[in-house]
Amino acid sequence: MNEGGRLGNPMHRTAETFLQHRPTEFSQIERGASGNLLNMSSSRIMQLLSVAALAACGLVGAPAPSAAAATCPASQVVFARGTGEPPGLGPVGEAFVNQLRSRVGARSLGAYAVNYPASDQWDTGIDGVRDAGAHIVSMAKDCPNTKMVLSGYSQGAAVMGFVTSPAVPAGVDPATVPKPLSPDLADHVSSVVLFGLPNERAMNFLGEPPVTIGPLYQPKTLELCVDNDPVCSEGLDFALHNVSAYQDGMVARGADYAASHL
Fold first, then answer.
1. CATH at 234
2. Which residues of 7-24 are buried (b: 16+ CB within 10 A; e: fewer)?
3. Most buried residue, 70, 89, 131, 163, by most Cβ within 10 Å?
4. Do residues 199 and 234 share a domain?
5. 261 is catalytic
6. pTM for this structure?
7. Strand order through the sheet with 189-195
8. Is 154 a catalytic residue?
9. Which residues are bridge partners to 195 per DSSP?
10. β-pair partners for 222
11. Domain range holding 125?
12. 247 in a domain, yes or no?
């Protein structure tokens, strides 16, 4: 506490300095044309002094950049894992992100694991469509310069394919599913890479509508399928629909494609 009984607050000292050296503009506000003091309320005077004191302390001025903008990566992989895999990116997703990271050099690359059950109850895949769509909307708003790579494996590939669909599938009640993404959001997606995307035969077997890739995403979509994998081809070798089959070569091809679109 100083001699005047006032707390040693720099704001008080700044206000006193301001009163002694206040700008001409404030002198004009304080006095009328005849030079007499205007009848200003004490609260108004305090408002003026507070603004001036804050300005002198550097507490007002140009807005600081948001924390979200400061942490936005140059690109981000949004990945939905396959059926039965634990929460996270899953083995194919992790391999894909690592391969892509090795191709982007010094540019920052983030990853988002779509939050959904990934269970054998494929109806719950809609939770993944909802979560991925909400994340894409959020990223486009908070990190408009971040380029997103949409990707997924098996059931996750179907989830991400539905995210790009321009309309609700026929026979599905629109009130029970998320609305299709706004067309302008496609500009924030650099590519779509789908591993082992279930074909129409597989989706029919599962009692689900076929996946339709939206026209705004088709030119930048790569679908990768191991030969004779019955989930995504006309083959019947079920042993080929497994993680290792896609980690060996397919992931590298996907990373090459995604990198070329960044």
1. 3.40.50.1820
2. eeeeeeebbeebeeeeee
3. 163
4. yes
5. no
6. 0.73
7. 109-113, 75-80, 147-153, 189-195, 221-224
8. yes
9. 153, 224
10. 193
11. 67-260
12. yes
Catalytic residue among 154, 165, 190, 233: 154
User: Do 102 and 42 belong to one domain?
Assistant: no
- Answer whether residue 87 is part of any domain: yes
Residue 173 is a catalytic residue? no
Annotated catalytic residue, options 151, 165, 190, 229: 229
State the total domains in the chain. 2
Residue 13 clears pLDDT 70, i.e. is over it: no
pLDDT in tens, 184-236: 999 999 999 999 999 999 999 999 999 999 999 999 999 999 999 999 999 99
Q: What is the pLDDT of residues 130-175, one digit of tens each?
A: 999 999 999 999 999 999 999 999 999 999 999 999 999 888 888 8
Q: How far apart are CA 53 and CA 183, in angstroms?
A: 48
pLDDT above 90 (res 67) = no
Same domain? 42 vs 118: no
Count CA atoms closer than 13 A to 109's CA, side-chain side: 20
Q: Please indicate, yes or no, whether residues 106 and 19 belong to a single structural domain of this protein.
A: no
Q: Is residue 2 part of a domain?
A: no
142 and 122 in a common domain: yes
Encode 41-80: b = buried (16+ Cβ within 10 Å), e = exposed: eeeeeeeebeebbeebeeeeeeeeeeeeeeebbebbbbbb
Q: Is residue 186 domain-shared with residue 236, that is, in the same domain? A: yes
- Say which range, 32-41, 62-71, 197-206, 230-239, has the weakest mean pLDDT: 32-41
- Asked if residue 233 and residue 125 are part of one domain, the reply reads yes
Confidence (pLDDT) at 70: 61
